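Figure S4 source data
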Amino acid sequence: MDFKNIIYAFACLSFAIVIGGAIYEHMGVVPRWSAAPPASLSMFQGKYGLNPAPFWMTIHPVTLLLLTTAIILFRKTDCKAYLLTTTIGYVIVLIITFMFFVPELMAITGTPYSENIDSSLTKRAKQWEVLSLVRLAFLIVLAIVAFLGLTKTK
């Protein structure tokens, strides 16, 4: 296995880690905080509140760097189209994430704690969750495209 293939494999691995993190959050974290906000938001608050930002702020640039490097290394091969499709789709998802998902998540989770359940906040949280699941499904399709590129002649 040569250096190019190792970079492609790491790009796929990094992209899979993004999806793994999203699946974990959707299975273990989102159902808890979205259940009955603002009462259910206490997990994000206080000195020891959950802060997933360092993970996401690290994995996204690493994944983009690896995908971009793989595009450069495979620019004259059949793999290029798979890598470009994945990378362009991923960049679009990241733009939407930073324009909508992150600000809405910060607005919801930053709501001060209260024992009372806010029905409008709960509705916003559920909408965020549904849209985020659509985003996750799109990322899974992009990952499949990236992995399919590994099967092409290099």
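Figure S5 source data
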Amino acid sequence: MIDELKNRLQAEVERLNHEINFVLPKEIERARAHGDLRENSEYKAALERQQFVTSRLSHLRLRLSKLSSVQESDIPRDRVGFGSRVTVQDVDTKQRETYALTLGEFIEGDDDGHETPVSMASPLGKALLGAKVGQSVTTALPMGQRRLKVVELETVHDLAGKRP
């Protein structure tokens, strides 16, 4: 799973590098050819895109460097962590929900719609991190506190054995 995320991040870095080194300079040059730069919306749009791409590249490189220091062996096998699929039961309503903890950039649901992706940086993700089966966690919501009990857990190690 970690290698898959590294590959996805690296692919986006390569795409953005191509854009910033080849595509945007051509767009900026084409916009400059139109004349007065103070009132040239194409020029301003290209410069804004260049700033965004530069910022995104910086963010992705930082994320890649942090991800490179993470080893699957460092992820706990008995607690909720990166890549875990966790089923929780609301203490008050007894309703069950399944969440998949992931990085914020790559939140995607599963094909059958049985789990909801949750960023580890979200309030729910932070509350679940480190929890064990049987443990209750509390997360703050705009409408009040929500208490959840962890009833099932599949860590990244368990899920790696299930992949084709």
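The longest strand covers residues 144-154. The mean pLDDT is 85.
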